Amino acid sequence: MSRLLGFTKDRRWLWASGIGLALFLFIQVFPVTGGLFSSNNHPVLPRAAAENKALELAADKFLIKPNQVQEVYVTHLSDSETIGYLSKYDLLQDYDKQWSGEVPADVYRVDLHLRGDAGILELSLQMETGDLVAWRHDSGSAPADALPEQDQADEYASRALSYAAFWGIDAADWEWSGDIDDNGGVKFNSRKAALGEAHVWLKVSVPAEYSSTSSTFPHWAGHSVTYGTEIPQAFTAYMEKQQQRAGWLSIFGFIVPQVIMFILAIVYAGTRGKHTSFLRGIFLASVFFVLYVAITINMIPGFRSQTMDAGADSGDRLNMAFLIIQIVFLAGTAIFTYFCAVAGDGLWKSMGRSLWPRWKEPGYGEAVLKSMKQGYVLAFILLGAQSVILLVLQQTLGAFASSDPTQSTYNMTLPWILPLLAFCAGISEELQSRFFGIGLFRSWFVGLARRILGREPSPRTAIVLTTAAMLPPSILWALGHVGYAIYPFYTRIIELVIMGVLFGWFMLRFGLMAVIFAHIILDAVLMGIQLLFDGLPGDAWAGLFSFVMPALVGIAIWWLYRVIHGRQAQPAQ
What we know:
single chain; alpha+beta; 2 domains; 8-stranded antiparallel β-sheet; two-stranded antiparallel sheet; 15 helices; about 10% strand
């Protein structure tokens, strides 16, 4: 087995891999230790089914015919603050039992853009059943209904609760809070027990002419039945502060340094060009760009969730602008990745190391196949290490995860292509942060030591300097991930600096291709698990395929090389 996987001399790698896989399964997959990874395997409606359900509800409950609907947008929205609060205080299971059916924190919001000047009807659907849990009609102007007098407030609130009951709300679950806002919205509090300090509220905007005894269909234009969760203000302020700090770190700790690294990559591609070829990296950078553009187009509903959360409407004009900006950014990232490939190869070869074989070299196909096998072994070690790191940070820092609908499979047109993102991350991040980043800082550190000592540093000193060279690019890489929905924001910095050093060590030990495969496999496994448990029909098979996809790619490259090169496929003896 060790020879088959490319570890012919040391079985300890296989033992470490097995232990890493076991740790990953027990900490992040199996509900044993309560790790940061959580999953919900309830069947969820596909986006198309949610759209059809919304059109049925519009016809049955709002008397809106299909030909009155101009456009339909389906978006997964999530109350990230509520999910974060429940996650931090271990209340998610209680929430699932008590609230998720009638007032879920995650919904499909289906926006029906009505023809003419009829506005937008926003329907919030329970994601598993398609039941209507909330709605709002945006007519472009607030309703002009007069507010009730003080002595009529109780009767007004009673009519509002009756109005909500018409739309499927269980009136017995709610009591009037005594609050009527300036727009006539009547606020109710849930009679169910609070979860920690989290309380659910219902707000109803009721037409002035509505009567519970009338047999006529109630007026709905310009009105709404919505709900939300009130969580402690201190926790809301905490999350906002965390997000602000993460945003500043992303700009000044990642984006600005990345621009500097881009310039340095161009410079070193020129100065170290004699040690390499300017054809290096063209194929990988092109694969990155093509795949990421396809993935970005696939995630347009995710962009929509972000713009809707900011208060914009669900139209695609703003989302198309985001898409164009993102494609331009991806083109720049692909060019950066290319120069990192050239500069990194030149740097390492100028330092006497060849970490990346070329296609034209004998045995390239066998090297890819071996790297793929090693990649699985290393990926399982990394998954185990990541799981332990996150568990320790959860226990020591109180780390917790929230939700991010922009990355949700429910906001993807074709969820099953999610694992392709693993190839984009593995290619770009390993070429940028490890291959070029470590090579750049190692050349600086060793060069500085050479000047100070007046000679070549000793092997032991070189090892220390190489290890030190892993830290700056690992920190930059980590700062590029602080925007993820894990709190406190420095949780990911600690985790990814450690992971970055491990990736760097593996690259120096097994070569660039092995660590690219390891990164791809790690992400493909995590994304496969996400697909397995997202509840969408067909995604479980896509999740299983995600696990073997890197192996199939490695085998395909090996086979293609043998077909093209024939007898030259084997390395010279």
